[in-house]
Design brief:
Elements (H helix, E strand, L loop, with lengths): L1 E6 L2 E4 L4 E9 L3 E10 L6 E7 L4 E3 L7 E6 L4 E6 L8 E10 L3 E5 L3 E6 L1
Parallel strand pairs: 2-11
Antiparallel strand pairs: 1-3, 3-8, 4-5, 4-9, 5-6, 7-8, 9-10, 9-11
């Protein structure tokens, strides 16, 4: 069984920073792609950023230049450094990963709340 556990969410003022972490554990052969998604109240879940096992990254236009995604393959952990936070970044942030166990499956974390006050 594979688990993704997020941490690092919280309340921050506009302009502040937070760092989210997502740790994968369990019977993992290989983690191919990891990503962060977010869902604000009354809105659909949206992509924030993704990173491949080769460190190729992709960002939503709304976070480019402010957020940075990274991963530590040795620790099966992914990070999201969020700077210059805005109230519109308020959402539940979810970790997502495509993992070979050995066949490929998509896994989701339970989510962590990020609240940015104005």
């Amino acid at each position: 069984q594979v688990q993704l556990v997020e941490s690092g969410g919280g309340l921050v003022q506009a302009g502040g920073s937070l760092r989210l972490s997502c740790a994968a554990s369990g019977s993992i052969f290989s983690i191919k792609v990891m990503g962060w998604y977010r869902q604000a109240p009354g809105k659909q879940r949206e992509l924030v950023a993704t990173i491949t096992s080769g460190d190729t990254t992709n960002y939503a236009d709304s976070v480019k230049g402010r957020f940075s995604i990274s991963r530590d393959n040795a620790k099966n952990t992914m990070y999201l450094q969020m700077n210059s936070l805005k109230p519109e970044d308020t959402a539940v942030y979810y970790c997502n990963a495509f993992i070979l166990v050995p066949d490929g499956h998509v896994f989701w974390g339970q989510g962590t709340q990020v609240t940015v006050s104005s």
